[in-house]
Amino acid sequence: MLNIIQAKDIKDRKIVLDADAVVIGSGAGGAVMAYKLAKAGMSVVILEAGPYVPSSEFNEELPDMMELLYEDGGAQTNKDGDLGVLQGRCVGGSTVVNGCVTFRTPDFVLEQWQQEFGLNNLTMEALRPYYEEVEKNLSVHENQDYEINANSRIQIRGCDKLGISWKRLHRNTRACAMTGHCLAGCKTDRKQSMLVTYIPWALELGASLYADTKVTKIHTEAGVAKGVSARTSDASGAVVADIKVNAAIVVCAAGAIQTPLLFLESGIANSSAQVGKNFACHPSSAVVAEFEEDIHPWRGALLGSYVDEYMHPDKGGFILEGGGSGPIEMALSTEPGTGAAHLDFMSKIKNYATMVTLIHDHNVGHIRLNAGKKEINYAIADIDFPTMKKALSAAAKIFFAAGAKRVYLPTVSRTVLESESDLGPALDKLENEVHTLRMVSYHPQGTMRMGADKSAAVVSPNGETHDIKNLYVADASLFPSSIIVNPQITVYALSAYIADGITHDRATTLA
Ligand SMILES: Cc1cc2nc3c(=O)[nH]c(=O)nc-3n(C[C@H](O)[C@H](O)[C@H](O)COP(=O)(O)OP(=O)(O)OC[C@H]3O[C@@H](n4cnc5c(N)ncnc54)[C@H](O)[C@@H]3O)c2cc1C
């Protein structure tokens, strides 16, 4: 067990703490930030809204673990209710429940950030040491043969038949036990999430972490950050303590939905009127195909390979990941029918393969407070809908080339393709309307846009808000555009980069 202060440990109703820095959120951005600041000799307090759940308590049952480890018990959706928006809410944040896939930010994305948003500091050369640092610390490696499961081998077979380019995924695991339960948390600590890496390292260096503690307000004075107020609640929701942290440096890393909400609640740093705007999320769907052979797609490493052929926006702007999934996810991602049709669908579950689509979407959504409640506004832009269809089409063709008997498209109403000739007519029928596709976002991003122009961006190129001195953001909300690939490495690298800027400035001031 880590030395983390939880609601059950707290005796005082009011607590006041002083620190050099307070970090809001203990996920990808928060954990790396806390470690780097503590390593530089700063006193650091981390406040995390979610519970501390040691891996020994993970039971490998996805519904139970969603309830325990995910935001809104896994039920967070957009306002229309046709997009599940998944985020972790626990010590370690989304890194505890993620699929371990790692990508560096693509060159063409960084180039766009330089050209359109004035982020001339974020070149591949400048970020390379940060990628290397986090990849080494998190045991990132290219999947070995034994980490390519039967589900991914189907994807590879189809790609090879069609001459389509694919690659092995990289993942942050150590001696993966290949149980396929990544999204329910890794019971054996092989996933190198923040829960088992940067958080314990930060604690060892003197940082303290309060779990069950939600920051409710960021305090500023004359345009300078001063600290935060937070509330610790027990599992029933009863308030146990009010905590105030006075700190010269405030870093918000509460994720792409909660960070803008906290800024809006605090009424700060919004002279650009961009707080909560420019939300993107890589809307994903899963194409399911039935084969003669047994696949057991939930067995083995969860994610083995991906199709990179269409990754560049000029070539399509999407990737397809060979992501295995269990019976529950498969029944959710496709319309399984009811009664006899449902039984028939489920009885063949071991013969299914799945492919996950990720598109390079435009930043058309926004997060706002509506009567004090969170509201996630996002619908696929008309400009992105053809990309979504192209991704579904490519996945279906790869499956048929691999020998699929039939393919299920992830539509709200049932769409079963008995052969490739059914594909065109089925896609032609799809209009960009609400509740057309079954979609989920694993990658919310972009609501606290980083950019050089303070009238168009909330956060400056060094991670500090344009409006408030010593108030930083270090999470996925920084991305000024969607990045197409799985984002954890980009978040870690940006957070590490911003942390070095903070410690360098501090050293200069103290000298
Ligand atoms: C199911 C799933 C699968 C994924 N798979 C992958 C993958 O394979 N590869 C990949 O690269 N990415 C993946 N991701 C995404 C990746 O994990 C995230 O992009 C990354 O963790 C985002 O980092 P963050 O710091 O922005 O937020 P998070 O890691 O989500 O951390 C934010 C933390 O802040 C806390 N918080 C929120 N509000 C407050 C508040 N007011 N006060 C205090 N604390 C607060 C939250 O509880 C949370 O713990 C996946 C995500 C999910 C949900």
TrEMBL record:
Note whether Disulfide bond occurs among the keywords: no
Q: Where is the Glucose-methanol-choline oxidoreductase C-terminal domain?
A: 364-494
Cross-referenced SUPFAM superfamilies: FAD/NAD(P)-binding domain
Q: Does the keyword section mention Oxidoreductase? A: yes
The UniProt keyword set, sorted, is: FAD, Flavoprotein, Oxidoreductase
Read off the Pfam families from this record.
GMC_oxred_C, GMC_oxred_N, NAD_binding_8
Q: Glucose-methanol-choline oxidoreductase N-terminal domain: which residues? A: 66-283
Classify the source by domain of life.
Bacteria
Its family remark reads: Belongs to the GMC oxidoreductase family.
**Official protein name in the record:** GMC family oxidoreductase N-terminal domain-containing protein
Q: Which organism is it from?
A: Zhongshania arctica
Taxonomic lineage per UniProt? Bacteria, Pseudomonadati, Pseudomonadota, Gammaproteobacteria, Cellvibrionales
